[in-house]
Amino acid sequence: MISVEEARARLLDPLKPLGTEYVSLAEAAGRVLAEDVTSRRTQPPFAVSAMDGYAVRAADVARVPAELRVVGSVPAGQRHDGKLGAGEAVRIFTGAPVPDGADAIVIQEDTERRDDVVVVKEGAPKGRYVRPSGLDFREGAVGLKAGRRLTARDVGLAAAMNRPWLLVHRRPRVAILPTGDEVVMPGDPVGPNQIVSSNALALGALVEGAGGIPVQLPIAPDDSASLQRIAEGAQGADLLVTTGGASVGEHDLVRDALGQTGLTLDFWTVAMRPGKPLMVGRFGATLMIGLPGNPVSTLVCGLLFVRPAIERLLGVVEDEAPTPRARLKVRLGENDRRQDYLRAKLSRAADGTLEAEPFKVQDSSVLSLLAAADCLVIRKPHAPAAEPGEPVEIIPLAGAAGI
């Protein structure tokens, strides 16, 4: 067995981002930038008012009350012609250009209007409520960096920078191949010795959440010819993910069956729990990850290996933030040579500290507890017993690639 860290390195190190394509801003959310995005304009392009009120010269309202002659009105989208003179004011609205000669805005609540005269009751220093040109960004400035997964905020910024099209990496196509005579899809007739398959659909959700395009292949029965025939559907995919048939046993055929048609393995079995029987290699030209069949093992391995593989193909810049921690709420015994990922609930202690409480049952077939979990508590190989109150590393599950 190899460690989780070595397995991830051997999987990810050879991977490169996929090719690029242009997408419209309307389709850009969730995509990964392939180049820096620079602004095509300065924002705001000129000094604008931040409030409704009157554009004035600060010198004219240094002493109040001050009476000024109103010489114009400027709604957003228009401009006052001419230069503001001494003793003059222009009625102005939020977002409208500040007239030449004006250097401050008096808000309307601090004024009283009398026909063409405005009485300023509260003065305004130079620059008050004036948004200078370029306050947000300037033409040519880099607003978004390559490798960033675009959010709604990023789409808004790109739009403000007048970038209607963005260059992004192509989304990887991920073929998902469930195996086993014992599994059927939800809604299909269930035989007396069969169970309903959850792996393929759960992995599809994970793939889509990570930014990939899931391609669901039929369930392959436990015979070599059928498995080989169905696996042909992965041709053209960027990644093939199988579930089941990865452990040691006479009915586990993925390695042997696909080995006859182009599968070359890099490694097989990882020192982790759940998920020890994990295969990584290439099926012809396609990267392959063979996941174990237990549903919890499938999703934990999907989180630890499939998601980062998809992100590497997408060109996502890796997060260098330290692994989050929580305070242990219960005692844990010493660990063996495998790295554990314990399903756990999170809560806040009275002092505001995050606390993790692993479930008592950690069997890899119990999917309901993974659905109920808030995080995975990481236990290093040969970790000593841990007492309540000790810090532990966690993987939060909220928003984790669809998990």
What does this structure look like?
This protein has 4 domains: 125 residues, Molybdenum Cofactor Biosythetic Enzyme, Chain A, CATH 3.40.980; 47 residues, Molybdopterin biosynthesis moea protein, domain 2, CATH 3.90.105; 84 residues, Beta Complex (Molybdopterin biosynthesis moeA protein, domain 3), CATH 2.170.190.11; 72 residues, Beta-clip, CATH 2.40.340.10. It is elongated. It contains 7 helices and 26 strands. Helix 3 packs parallel to helix 6. The mean pLDDT is 93. The protein has 403 residues and is α/β, with parallel strands linked by helices. A 6-stranded mixed beta sheet has the order 7-4-6-5-9-8, with no helix packed on it. Helix content is 17%, strand content 29%. The two termini are 27 Å apart.
Key attributes of the depicted protein:
alpha/beta, Molybdenum Cofactor Biosythetic Enzyme, Chain A, Molybdopterin biosynthesis moea protein, domain 2, Molybdopterin biosynthesis moeA protein, domain 3, 4 domains, six-stranded mixed sheet
> How would the global form be characterised?
elongated
Q: Provide the CATH topology of the largest domain.
A: Molybdenum Cofactor Biosythetic Enzyme, Chain A
Compute the separation of the termini in Å.
27 Å
Strand order of the largest sheet: 7-4-6-5-9-8
CATH homologous superfamily of the largest domain, by name?
Answer: MoaB/Mog-like domain
User: Low-confidence stretches at least 5 residues in length (pLDDT < 50)?
Assistant: none
Number of domains: 4
Label the structural class. Answer: alpha/beta
Number of E-type strands: 26
The CATH architecture classification of the largest domain is: 3-Layer(aba) Sandwich
